[in-house]
Amino acid sequence: MAMVLLLGGCGEKSAAEPFDPAETAQALLDSGAFTDQLAQISNQVAVTLYGLDADTLSDDSVVYVSSGASAEELAVLQFTDDSAAESAVSLLKQRVEKQTAACQDYLPDEILKLSSAITEVRGNTAVLVVAADASAAQKVLDGES
Amino acid sequence: MGVLLLAALLSVSAASCGATGSVTSTDSGTSSETMLSATAEGSETGTQTETSGEIGAQTAAAAQTTTQADTAVLSSYNYLQSAPCGDAVDDSYFSDAVLIGDSRIEGMFLYGTLSSAVFFCGKGATVANVKTKVNASVNGADMTIMDALAQTDFSKVYISLGLNELGWANMDAYQTDYGELIDQIRQLRPDALIYIQDIIPVNPEVCAQRGQATYINNERIAQYNSLLYELAREKQVILLKVSEVFADENGALPADDTADGIHLNASCYQQWCDYLRTHTVHPEDYSPPAGQAPDTADGGSDPSTQDS
Question: The complex's ipTM?
Answer without folding.
Answer: 0.86
